[in-house]
Specification:
It is built from no helices and 11 strands. The protein has about 130 residues and is mostly beta strands. It is globular, with a radius of gyration of 13 Å.
């Protein structure tokens, strides 16, 4: 069992930056591909970024590539999402998710993630 707790979401103006954090409990963090997924009301969850547990290779959605950066600290059981040049369309509830022992090429698929946090709200004003 893995428990995930996100933090760092807040109201910010367009062009600003935020860093989200996700603290994980349990022993499987270092062997889990970690992802960030976002959702707006009435829409499906949308992949944002992932980081592979084997080689720490990141993967990004085209809409955030070059602006968002994912990283992990296995010693702290924490994954981060640095978000720069924020846009109003980045407004969403951001979830942290874990896919234990998954190292495949489809980490962008939301269905690959087994464990989810409760989400942290990011609101970007224009």
């Amino acid at each position: 069992q893995v428990q995930l707790v996100e933090s760092g979401g807040q109201f910010v103006q367009a062009g600003g930056s935020l860093r989200l954090s996700c603290a994980a409990s349990g022993r499987t963090f270092s062997s889990s591909t970690m992802g960030w997924v976002r959702q707006t009301p009435g829409n499906e969850r949308e992949f944002v970024a992932s980081i592979n547990y084997v080689d720490d290779i990141p993967n990004y959605a085209p809409s955030v590539n070059g602006r968002f950066f994912i990283s992990r600290d296995n010693a702290k059981n924490t994954v981060y999402l640095q978000m720069n040049s924020l846009k109003p369309e980045d407004t969403a509830l951001y979830y942290c998710a874990a896919a234990p022992l998954y190292s495949g090429a489809h980490a962008y698929r939301v269905a690959e993630y087994r464990y989810w946090g409760q989400g942290t709200q990011v609101t970007v004003s224009s």
